[in-house]
């Protein structure tokens, strides 16, 4: 797409801002001419705009959040009372397997990608990601893989070996249906999406930062996303190898985990957990980044110890590679291995604790505003700390051996991922919603959303610590009436799950009410939170090209420093410009003839070829050749299309009177 060159004029600014004189509304119309993509479904399906791709990642991920939540509710209903009859043993195995798979791979990871795709280019002052068409390919590949995994429900039943899919339980002998096949190949497809997205965002962060933005002037959210992308680059090949071996064993008679032929089933556990523990930080670090953006804004203070927070994120990513075997203490690794991984598990608590301390000191002495975004950020600190403390007990090998395969592990895992990752994502929803959609979510509904989720989460997962320490195993689909403690605490957990679901429903209602409302109060101003970073230095929502002029960065929290300065006589911080004035100055110095990539349908074609290959692996090898042919043709078409659109591709839209009045008032 091309930004069509328009005559640029200047708007009225206060003295000292560096921009010339006033323009009339008629003259200002030229500033608002923007090219548009084709309307209708093609506008979204063929787009390569990182913002639309981010929105679509978010929508698809949230749909799977609902799917995973419904699966969880069926699990809780089955365990609500002794001798539950909601699910059979086979259905229960499928349900908890698909619930965990959905939440980890199809909700938290892609939702983090939604935030990363939308905000990383904005936070570093870039027009788009480094490889926009590869970005679109990543989106559609994730969608294809997610649908492929869930097709198993309709083609014989879901995967039933647990989200960890330990061998030999995942072999044909113990799981003869095709659920595991769909699971294994579907996750390989989503892994391709994660890997291409990771390379794209790494190049974007390194090569496309605005002039003057060094690594230690990047916002913490972008820092955490960059660390996560490096984790993905090294972790995804490991799980891809494991999934390939599993698929080859099931589909082509391989013996990679067959003890009779000299293989070792522990090979799968090592491969899975070498990926699986860095995966925990792949899930939570984006939320750590979100909280690190939200807390300073609503504390009216800069982030305490910015460099420590950034470096501790990188340290978590590094040390996270050395703790995987604490998932395997019960497998007979031997005392030396257990000792080493116990020490590493204790060590990783240090950089995590650094973040907790820095977040707390950021709030200390600040002028706190308890918006919904702030409440979810504080909720993450509290709930993740509880999960972290229970996690440290896994470093004590004798204790961990007793806790392994009990509900204590389930409780710990959910405090880390739900209390950590998902609370952080909801904080990001409320903080950045006005930036993405130009509307403010309702705070009353938001606080109801928060409190119901906090109460529901602790009611659901808190009791699991108790029943786990009392010996209730994981993956047990029934328990006897004589187990009084299990009866009581499982009933409490089920009530908590419904409270939690009600909290999620409040969020959905909030979104619907906000976007149907005709009340002008829901329209977001340019800078609704008095924010600090560059993404707020453009309109809500941003234009296709993000910035009229690429900003030059002089300070960490550049946007804040353009609004405020220290009065050297009184040492007080005084406002020197508003967001509207800064935006107007950007438009007054707008760049001309900005070129952006044109829409393309070839990434979608290549993505759709991958499930065809998957069906070939499972059902008919002829389909493998068909899928490979579609892949080759798609890549050929992709390589032959022009890199950018011409000026004649799109007509500029009509300017809005409201926007003109806003800048010429």
TrEMBL record:
Domain Cytochrome oxidase subunit I profile: 35-554
Locations listed in the record: Cell membrane
Top-rank EC class of the record's enzyme: translocase
SUPFAM superfamilies xrefs: Cytochrome c oxidase subunit I-like
Gene3D superfamilies (alphabetical): 1.10.287.70, Cytochrome c oxidase-like, subunit I domain (1.20.210.10)
Bilayer topology annotation: Multi-pass membrane protein
Transmembrane segments annotated in the record for this chain: 55-75, 95-116, 137-156, 182-208, 220-246, 266-291, 303-324, 336-358, 370-392, 412-433, 445-468, 488-513, 612-638
GO molecular function, one term: cytochrome-c oxidase activity
Cellular component terms per the entry's GO annotation: plasma membrane
Pathway(s) annotated for this protein in UniProt: Energy metabolism; oxidative phosphorylation
Chain residue ranges for the region called Disordered: 646-665
Enzyme Commission number(s) from the entry: 7.1.1.9
Keywords: Cell membrane, Copper, Electron transport, Heme, Iron, Membrane, Metal-binding, Respiratory chain, Translocase, Transmembrane, Transmembrane helix, Transport
Short name of one Pfam family: COX1
Main location: membrane
Catalytic activity as recorded in UniProt: 4 Fe(II)-[cytochrome c] + O2 + 8 H(+)(in) = 4 Fe(III)-[cytochrome c] + 2 H2O + 4 H(+)(out)
Alphabetical list of InterPro entries matching this protein: Cyt_c_oxase-like_su1_dom (IPR023616), Cyt_c_oxase-like_su1_sf (IPR036927), Cyt_C_Oxase_1 (IPR000883), Cyt_c_Oxase_su1_BS (IPR023615), Cyt_c_oxidase_su1_bac (IPR014241)
Name under which the protein is recorded: cytochrome-c oxidase
Organism: freshwater metagenome
